[in-house]
Amino acid sequence: MRVKVNQALCQGHSLCYMTVPHVFKLDDDGHAYAEEPDVSAADTASVRNAADACPEMAIEVEAEPDGD
Fold it and tell me: pLDDT tens-digit profile of 27-56?
């Protein structure tokens, strides 16, 4: 799967970073971004949890064509 943070929606709550800090990073303003958009199979559930927990719904998760 792939993940992206919509910068226009992110308000810097940093819940995603606290959930999966090796996937999400914070910029100088405290807004999140995905350092690497391709998510490993081991991190799939955690990234989905982070997306579900985002108050602004700023995290976009895209499944790979094989269903991952």
Answer: 999 999 999 999 999 999 999 999 999 999
Domain 2-62: assigned CATH number: 3.30.70.20
Domain ranges of the chain: 2-62
Q: In terms of pTM, does the model score above 0.85?
A: yes
Can you count the helices (H) and strands (E) in the chain? 2, 4
